[in-house]
Here is the input.
Amino acid sequence: MAKNNEFLWRRLHSLLGIIPVGLFLTQHLIVNHFATKGVDAFNEAAHFMESLPFRYALEIFVIFLPLMFHAFYGIYIAFTAKNNTQRFSTFRNWMFVAQRITGIFLVIFIAWHVYETRWQVAIGADKADFNMMADILGNPWMFGFYVAGVLAATFHLANGIWSFLVSWGITQSAASQRVATYVTLGIFVALSVVGIRALLAFVV
Amino acid sequence: MVTATEAKKITVEIQRQDTPDSEPYWEAFEVNYRPNMNVISALMEIRQNPVNKDGKATKPVTWDMNCLEEVCGACSMVINGRPMQSCSALVDKLEQPIKLAPMRTFPVVRDLQVDRTRMFDSLKRVKAWVPIDGSYDLGEGPRMPERKRQWAYELSKCMTCGVCLEACPNVNDKSNFMGPAPLSQVRLFNAHPTGAMNKDERLNAIMGEGGIANCGNSQNCVVACPKGIPLTTSIAALNRDTTVQMFRNFFGSDYMVDN
Ligand code: HEM
Ligand code: SF4
Ligand code: FES
Here is the structure.
C-alpha cells in the first residue's frame, strides 16, 4: 500500500461512532423505554422494529458492519495507547482512559447481549419480547451486567461526542471544549436514566 | 565549624543506563545543599565528585544541556515523575528525594541523555519552515497583521524539548504518532502569510503516517508544555483544516495551492 490511509480510517472510525452506531444506541434505548409503559407497549414497539422493511439489510449495514469496524479498529486504538494517569491525573486524561476501558467492556457486553437476544431469536430458540428480557434480567448478576453495559455505552457515546467534536475541528477553543464537557455530561445522564429505567421496568 | 546550610544535604536518585541497549538501574547520590539550586547544579555537583550515597566511586552522570534558561529544550528529563526541563527545575520546589529519569519515549543514549532525532525528522516531514530560497530575490512577502504576529509568537516558542511527546499516551513504541509539537508547528507556519503558500503540503503531510489522526484527546500535552503553547487548540484547529483538506483532495479542482 503506497498511500497511507490512516487518516481516512480514523475519521471513518470517528464518524461511525456517531452515525450510525451512536444514533442506533439512542434509538435502541428509547425503544426499550417502552417497557416502562407495560408489557404490551414494549411488545408492540419490539414488534414494530422487527417488522421494519429491509430489516436484514438495515441490521447488517446500519448496525452490524459499522459497529464491527468501530469495535475492532477501536480495540486496536485502545491497545496502542500507553495510559499514564499516574503521571497526569487530569480529568481529560481519565476520560481518555475511560473511553478505552468502556470500549473494551462494550465488546464483551455487546457480544454477549447479541448472542443472548438477537442470536437466540435468529435460531428460533427464543422470541424477542418482554418475557425474554424479564427472564434474563431476573438473575441479579445479569441485571448488574446489563446496568454496567448500559452505563458503559452511554458514557462511551457521550464522551465520544465530546471527542468527535474535537476530532472534526468543531470545538477548538478551550472554552467551547469546556462547554461541550457539560453538554455531553448532560447527554450521559439523560441517556443513562432512559436506559436504566427500561432495565428496572423488566424486574419490578 | 559547620553551619546549618552547609550540613544540609539533598538526595538525588538517578535512573542510569550505561549504553543505549543496556538495562537501566537506579543509583542514589547525596549533594550538599545550596540555596536556589536547580537540578542541573545538583547534577554538576555529582559530576565533580562522582561518588554515590554508599560512598562508592561511580561513573559520572551524563545529561544534555545548553542554554540553561529554558529556551533550548535540550535538558528535558523526568523529574519526580513529570517530564520537564532540569535547568528550570528548582530544588527548593521539588519533593525529596529528587528522582531523575530519562524521557523513555525517546531512545536513551546514556543515563539522562536521550536522542530527540525523531522530532527533527517530523519537523522535516511536515515542512516546518517558510520556503523562500531561490535563484533570485523574491522581494518582500505579504505583511502580517501585528496582532497575528503576537499570537504566532507564542506558537514559535516551541523548543522541541519533547516534554509533550513524553506526556502523550499515544506516543510510544506501539504507535508512530509524531506527537503534538510538530503539529502545532504546522499551524504556526500555515498562519504565516508566506508560509501559507504551501499550507496544503503541510496539511497533507500531517494527514499521512503517524499524523494528526493519532491524537486521542487526552490533552496531557497542553498541561505539560513548559512554554504554555496552546497545543490542544492547535490540534483542534488543524483537525478542522485537515477535514477541509480531505474533502478538497477528493472533490476539489485541479488547482488548490493557495485558495
Ligand atoms: C455502543 C457502541 C459504541 C458507540 C456508540 C461508540 C461511539 C464512539 C464515539 C462517538 C467515539 C468518538 C470518536 C472520536 O473520537 O472522534 C468513539 C471513540 C472510540 N471508541 Fe467507540 N463506540 C461504541 C463501541 C465501541 C467499542 C465496542 C469499542 C472497542 C474497543 C470502541 C472503542 C473506541 C475507542 C478506542 C475510541 C477512541 C478513538 C479515538 O479517540 O481516537 N467503541 N466511540
Ligand atoms: S510544544 Fe511545548 S512541550 Fe512540546 S516540544 Fe514544544 S516546548 Fe516542548
Ligand atoms: S538547558 Fe536549555 S532548556 Fe534547559
